[in-house]
Amino acid sequence: MEPPATLDQLVADASARIAASPSLGDLRGVEGELLGRGSTIADARAGLRDLGPDERRTMGRLVNQATAVVTEAITARRIELEREETAARLAGDAVDVTLPGRSMVPGTLHVIRQVMDEIVDIFVSLGYTVATGPEAETDWYNFTALNFKPDHPARAETDTLYLDYGDTAEGVLLRTHTSPMQARYMEQHQPPVHLVVPGRVFRRDPLDPTHSPVFHQIEGLAVDSDITFADLKGTLTHFAREFLGPDLTTKFLPHYFPFTEPSAEMHVLYRGAWLELLGCGMVHPAVFEHVGYEPKQVTGFAFGMGADRMAMVRHGVTDIRHLFDPDLRILMQYR
Ligand code: PHE
After folding, report:
1. Strand order in 136-138's β-sheet?
2. Taking the domains of the chain in order of start, what are their residue ranges?
3. For 73-127, how does the pLDDT look when each residue is reduced to its tens digit (9 = 90+)?
């Protein structure tokens, strides 16, 4: 039988080992050695049955005390280790708010979209309404309603991209201009009409510095009972001055479009050079007839301009292909 001094010694050693256990796994090992089978305490408890009654009572109390002290020390250390391990895990997960951030490059609208918005805004401030139409258009709206004759060259497959819709009564095509919206809008609305139509249009042109098979237009239409060519000139000159500069000079040269008569091109004197800016004219009576207006009671003017060209003029872009380049280093120069 171990003398009490040895048990005291054991408790002191045990407390030191428990306190020094570096991890929960380690502590479980120490617990087995101190209290489990074959441990000094377990052996002392087993030896009690060989003692006389008095000695057994004294020794029993000492063994119970030693067990209680060791168990308590283990519990205390376990709580401590659990807390440390939780703290370490949280520290590992933590976000380091002192690291420098990843900077975001702010995006912008594409330069063509910016210019279209700007042009539309100029007309909206004059009281115009904005509408958009379908990019897949019928032959009727794209050509016939606009007074194109059946053999007009623009209808040729070499100029226009036709869509294969199988056996349809009439051809379906990618609209070659935004003018079909003149007819669509007038069919649905009675005069007075003040309309602008921004949109994407398509022609069978190879991509080169000044042509793209996909480009953008802004259409305009004003119809009322007594609109004159003077209104056309005043409105479009106002627009050009808002867009390019207050002292801009404009001139109107005769031109031909099937859906306007007379027709003109507006040129502007910009940075020392004459520049063709848009096509325009007085709405042809045949167009009014096709949309169900009474041609004797209304007059109007229409115009159409290339938004890509406007963006090129505004930003000094010399090759239209730059506008469609997906390389942001190129596009970001035009902001
Ligand atoms: N639709 C014509 C074009 O694409 C432009 C235009 C519009 C001309 C309206 C006159 C009136 O070239």
Report:
1. 136-138, 172-174, 162-163
2. 4-93, 111-334
3. 899 999 999 998 888 888 888 888 888 888 888 888 999 999 999 999 999 999 9
Q: Which of 147, 257, 259, 301 to mutate for ligand 1's pocket (most ligand atoms within 8 Å of CB)?
A: 257
Cβ–ligand 1 distance for 304 under 6 Å, the answer yes
CA dist 241 → 126, 236, 248, 254 (Å): 14, 9, 6, 21
76-85, 130-139, 163-172, 321-330: least confident range: 163-172
**Paired strand residues for 138:** 172
Ligand 1 geometric centre to CA of 109 (Å): 26
pTM equals: 0.71
CATH no. for 111-334 = 3.30.930.10
202 C-beta closer than 6 A to ligand 1: no
